[in-house]
Each structure stands twice: as structure tokens, then as C-alpha cells.
Amino acid sequence: MNLDVKNWNYFTLGDLFDFQKGKRLTKSDMISGNVNFLGAISENNGIREKIDIPKNELWEPNCITVNYNGSVGEAFHQDEPFWASDDVNVLYAKGWEMNKYNALFLCTIIKQEQYRFCYGRKWTLEKMKESKIKLPVTTTGSPDWNFMECFIKSLHHKLITTKITKKPASPDTSKWQRFRFGDIISSINKAQAYNDDYLINSDPNSKDSVPYITRTDEKNGVKSFVKNQELTGIQSGNAIVIGDTTATVSYQENDFICGDHIVVIRADWLNKFTGLFIVTLLRKESYRYSYGRAFKMDIIKNTVLKLPTTKDGTPDYIFMENYIKSLPYSDRI
Q1: Helix 317-325 vs helix 272-283: angle between axes, to the nearest 10 degrees?
Q2: Which residues on adjacent β-strands are paired with residue 212?
Q3: Distance between CA atoms of 157 and 9, rounded to whole angstroms?
Q4: Res. 291 pLDDT band, cuts 50 70 90
């Protein structure tokens, strides 16, 4: 099925949905349980943790949740009862029937509005109600919910399998030690920046294509694949990459080029397993930074990470590698 968007029409979100605002819960109110707690994050379908909340206080499923703060504009379909934090707006269908297929279509469309907002310009409830999205339409000019459902159903995929079926126990971090990040790496540099207006998009499977890494936190930082037209700023793979103004962190296994404000980090202990371990810890620091307080090179070097150690007190990179390898689906990395 083709998406011929030129014949689509704009619709106001407030006309399509009934809105509810999430509610604040303090840490002291949170007890571990089996209810999804939604926060303003961009992954795991918005689920930040599992908590214990009475059933009569939960939001009903079959709705779309949209972050208005934090990872602004991230949208997810919820098919289980949940609790939404006050950084999340909850959208229920108004006058039409939602299902997981047309909801997933809508989530993708809503996410296209992310670029209009950031930490400094929140997508508040009133702004969200007034926002417009472009949708396919029927001959009568109403949203074509059947087309949306059929389009999502037409997207075929093969389920990812893994031979690792047992999740390892959480590591005991009580004996881990703190290390200044700059003391355990061999180099940190600002990458040569390319403007994508001057790049030629390429098939990812083409031998002459390279990933174009930007400050996005989606698709492991890859905005697109571009043609290697004798580019001089190609970075070698096996590197940790940080977007300094957005504090987005990724590990890049293959050669790549960069957009603006990209920092490239290298170390002699780095491979895709230790890289993913360290990237996870660096991402835990990203909440401290935004456009107003960039994650610049000096700050990156002075960042302190708590790491597993060997008997002689040095970082235990073998443990890090083996831990990542022990995780389900690590055999598919």
C-alpha cells in the first residue's frame, strides 16, 4: 500500500480525541508491583517501571499516551491498564473506534510533530488539543480509519528470536567503584560536521553507503544512509558517539559520518559489548543536560561512572562484555 499524502487532510487533535492529564506520583508513593507506570521517556512503550496501584485508580487501556515534557512528542498505544505521570497526556478516541492498528498509525503521525517542541517549549495539554495532523481521508472527507488499519497490517516482519532464554541476575553494584570517564578513554574529539542538504541518500545495503549520525535518539542515532562521494570526514567504526546539545548517546560499530555537534569517543577496551554497557551508563546521565546545558567534551570527560572492578581496582571490561553477552537477544547483536 502506498502513502499518497498529497490527498490527505488536516485534523485537529482536540476533534479526534478526548484528553486526560496524567497525575504526579512521588517516590514515596511508589511501591513495586505489576502495573505499568508511564513516564516521559522515549522507549519501552513509555513504561518507566512497574508499581502497585489500586485498579479503580488506573487509566483504561486502548488509548494513546503522548509525552508533553521530557521526551516531548513520544506517542504510544497502551493496551493494558496503567498509571500516567503528570508529564504524559492520555488520549481516548472521540466518536470513532480505536484499535491497536489505527492507533499505531496515529502514533507515528503524532511523533512527526516532535520537532516543534523541546524541553524549553513543552507540548502542553492546550497546545496539543489545538495541534493538527495530516491523515488519509475517505470520499466524504473524514479520517480513513480503515486505510490506517489496513496499512499497518500490511507491514510484514519476522519476529526476532534468541537462543538466550534466561535473563541474568541484576549485578551487585555495591562494590563497584567510581571512575572519571576521561581517565579510561584514549581520545575524545568533535567530528567533522556535514549538512544533509549536501548529501545524497543511498540504499543502506549499497556498498558505497555510510550511516549519517545526528543528534537524534532514534534508530541508534542514524538519520539516514548517504552515498560515500569521496567524503573526507568518515569516522572509523567502534566508537561511542554523543550529541552534545541533546545528550544523545550511541555506539557505532561501522564507519559513519556526522551532523553538527557530534562528539566521538574511542578507547582500547572498546568493542560492541563493552560499548553498549558504557553507553547505557552514559544515558543515565542525559537527564542532566539539554539545549540550555550541553553535554560538552569537558563535561563528558569529567563525568563519573560507577563501574565493576577487577581485584586490582581497574574497570572490569571482561565482566561488562560477558554481562551484555548474557542478556536475551545479545546473540542477535
Answers
A1: 90
A2: 224, 257
A3: 29
A4: low
Predicted confidence at residue 119, as pLDDT, reads 55
Q: Which position has the higher pLDDT, 69 or 137?
A: 137
Tell me: pLDDT of 51 over 60.
yes
Query: Half-sphere exposure of residue 61, counting CA atoms within 13 Å on the CB side?
Result: 11
Closest to 268 measured CA to CA, from 211, 310, 203, 317? 317
Which of 251, 227, 255, 231 is closest to 241 using CA atoms?
A: 251
Burial 223-260 (b: 16+ CB within 10 A, else e): bebbebeeeeeebeebbbbbbbbbbbbbbbeeebbbbe
What string of H, E and C letters represents the secondary structure of 134-152?
Answer: EECECCCCCECHHHHHHHH
Judge whether 238 and 289 are in contact, CB under 8 Å: no
**In the 8-state DSSP scheme, what is residue 120?**
T
Between CA 66 and CA 21 the distance in angstroms is 10
